[in-house]
Amino acid sequence: MSENPWVVTTATVVIIALSAFFVAIEFALIAAKPHRLEDAATESRSARAALRSSHELTLLLAGSQLGITMCALALGAITKPAVHHAITPVLDGWGMPYWIADTLAFVLALVIVTFLHLVVGEMAPKSWAIAHPERSATLLAIPMRAFMWLVRPLLRALNQAANRLVRAVGVEPVDQTSSSQSPDDLLQLVQHSANVGALDAAFSAQIAQTINLQDLTVADLLVPGKEITAVPSDGTVADVQRAARESGHLRILVGPRERPTHVVHVRETLLRDPDEPIAPASREVFTLTSQTPLHEALTTMRESRNHLAVVDDGERVTGVITLADVLRRLSPSGQAVEAPATV
């Protein structure tokens, strides 16, 4: 390597800049939100390049690590010896024994090069990339794609070797990070936002209840000891109207209380003779098990247009829930929620 200090300085600046580049693109694509890159990809070639890189993240990380390692080796081969040779005569001129001056110069050169590489070449670009992930990923994606194209065979070999080691310990490698959040993560975010005043308390409660819906089952809506309103299978229109007046319910079950088989809406009785059998106006009851997830029950009831479901565990009927019961669970105030009128 040339002893010209300008050549060494220029080479050092270039090497540190390259190290910063590899570190920045690595952390940028880890921190970037895929949906933001997708939005920008419709109008930006750089965003499309960043999105492609995020879909082969392990290969990009291999390229970044290869680049960072090459930069570290280059600093050790070029900058450290130059700094060492520059400091040694200065310390020797202070009257130190040569072996002490040489050893101290070596240590100082190592400290200086390590500081430059660690702080300027890694920590600073890492902080910038994390603070502006989508911007930095978009800015650096195209040159990184060019580098990956040049060394892709080597990257694939390194990546395959790493994947074999990972599989050997029982872990399946993935090519991209997950963009989804777990319910616990979302709950923690909602609670934190409410605690710092960034989210209204009532609104945060509603969001939290919606998230918790994933963990609730139909059994959580059942009221122990609540009597089922039903009329006998051979009941009449008058029986249904009487049961509706006494209970305040619009939908009345038909059949034995232990296992009703049909349901009728009171409006179906308005134009019928009071002594007319109710069976022709009824329809088969919709059933769910108590362990059915509440979100699944909500979806099924809405899609099938059933506003009432009998909870049947096979041996016996344990209760009845309505679509309004499920929707009410989402209301932070606990007030009834208006359900669609379609039956």
Automatic annotation (TrEMBL):
InterPro entries, A to Z: CBS_dom, CBS_dom_sf, CNNM, UPF0053_domain
Cellular compartment(s): Cell membrane
Domain CBS: 281-337
GO cellular component: a single term: plasma membrane
Keywords noted in UniProt: CBS domain, Cell membrane, Membrane, Transmembrane, Transmembrane helix
Ranges annotated as spanning the membrane: 6-29, 57-78, 98-120
Keyword Glycoprotein in annotation: no
Record domain CNNM transmembrane: where: 1-203
Membrane topology: Multi-pass membrane protein
Keyword Cell cycle: no
Name recorded for this polypeptide: HlyC/CorC family transporter
